[in-house]
């Protein structure tokens, strides 16, 4: 019986520790103003211009994002289209009034691919456009990738 009680307490402490750690990590992120939450949340689409590298010529890829901004964190999904669609989970935050850093990892039907990286974006003064840089590792190129990203919000209403 004592082993069962110890097991329950150990499990409870692990569970509580996980959520306390996540809450503390989230508190370190800058607060996202309500107007910025509204501006960033929604569907975005555009082009990623991948630069040439030792394994692949430069190319333009179609990007579709669905983003949701909370009080401190931005989450969403991204679809990159070339010969097939690649799915990604996105997570990040604003680091100043209009500067974002978003991290992406492969998910969905392409989850087993080794694809990950970060995007550094600037939200336009009229918040229906974002542009910036993407850097990461691409499974198609099988090497580090970089390029420019330009996306627009589908619904310009804020």
Task: Kindly describe this structure.
It is a single chain. The protein is α+β, with helices and mostly antiparallel strands and 158 residues long. It folds into two domains: 1-30; 34-153, Beta Barrel (Lipocalin), CATH 2.40.128.120. Helices cover 21% and strands 47% of the residues. It is built from two helices and eight strands, in the order ααββββββββ. The N and C termini lie far apart (59 Å).
Helix/strand layout:
Blueprint: H1 2-27, H2 34-40, E1 42-50, E2 59-69, E3 74-81, E4 85-94, E5 99-106, E6 116-123, E7 129-138, E8 143-153
Antiparallel strand pairs: 1-2, 1-8, 2-3, 3-4, 4-5, 5-6, 6-7, 7-8
Defining traits:
alpha+beta; Lipocalin; globular; 158 residues; 2 domains; 2 helices
Strand line-up of the largest beta sheet? 1-2-3-4-5-6-7-8
Q: What structural class is derived from the secondary structure elements?
A: alpha+beta
State mean pLDDT (0 to 100 scale): 83
Evaluate the radius of gyration: 19 Å
The CATH class assignment of the largest domain is Mainly Beta
Helix count? Answer: 2
Number of domains: 2
CATH fold descriptor of the largest domain: Lipocalin
Number of DSSP E strands: 8
Question: Could you list the spans in which at least 5 consecutive residues all have pLDDT below 50?
Answer: none
Q: Give the SSE string.
A: HHEEEEEEEE
Helix content: 10-25%
For CATH, the homologous superfamily of the largest domain is named as Quinohemoprotein amine dehydrogenase alpha subunit, domain 2
Which strand-content bin applies to the residues? over 45%
Distance between the termini: 59 Å
CATH structural architecture of the largest domain: Beta Barrel
Largest sheet: 8 strands, antiparallel, barrel
3D shape: globular
């Amino acid at each position: 019986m004592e082993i069962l009680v110890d097991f329950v307490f150990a499990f409870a402490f692990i569970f509580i520790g996980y959520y306390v750690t996540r809450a503390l990590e989230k508190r370190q992120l800058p607060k996202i103003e309500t107007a910025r939450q509204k501006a960033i949340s929604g569907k975005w689409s555009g082009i990623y211009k991948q630069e040439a590298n030792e394994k692949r010529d430069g190319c333009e890829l179609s990007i579709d994002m669905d983003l949701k901004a909370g009080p401190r964190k931005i989450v969403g999904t991204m679809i990159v289209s070339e010969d097939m669609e690649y799915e990604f989970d996105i997570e990040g935050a604003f680091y100043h009034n209009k500067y974002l850093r978003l991290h992406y990892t492969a998910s969905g039907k392409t989850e087993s691919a080794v694809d990950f990286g970060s995007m550094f974006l600037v939200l336009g003064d009229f918040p229906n456009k974002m542009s910036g840089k993407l850097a990461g590792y691409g499974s198609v190129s099988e090497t580090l990738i970089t390029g420019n990203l330009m996306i627009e919000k589908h619904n310009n209403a804020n």
